[in-house]
Amino acid sequence: MNNKTYQYERIEIPNSSVLDSAEQFYDGAEFLRQLPPMSGVLLPMITNAALAIELYIKSLCVRSIIKDYKNFGNGVYGGRVTEEPLTKGHDLSSLLLIIGSEVIDNIETLHADGVIQYSFFELVELVKPYDKLFVEARYAYENDALSNLDITGLFHCLTTLRFTIQKITRIERVLA
Description:
Layout: E1 8-13, H1 16-33, H2 42-58, E2 62-73, E3 76-85, H3 92-97, H4 101-112, H5 120-127, H6 133-138, H7 151-167, E4 171-174
Antiparallel strand pairs: 1-2, 1-4, 2-3
């Protein structure tokens, strides 16, 4: 039985479109982080860092789909390409836990070989303190959730996740 929703579905891990977005928010967070203290950009810096972490994770669990897939003739097929997350939400550790076993196994191998610092489940624990950070930073005036935020720890999490994703073995396949 075919459970496909669209005529064309593709897995690319890490997904290059989502990864590009993650890199842009990473660059934004790093740029803001380099500004002098009291520059008035703390919330944008935190929001960019939190969103970059989320997008790095989501680059591991989205599929590319082509809507309105059709034959244009001469063996050329195509349509509107979009990326669709396997799940929605902003809870970082939950998003990380839904990635496929092939990626988890790759992370475990990289860790065992000393290429990366953290095992998969250690990465889950590393991101867990920032599970709600994206939402909390956007609505910081409603709570004091950011009062104990460790910026150094946040950027350690961000750069660790970024480095890990740069090291994983790329997966590309069309879903049959």
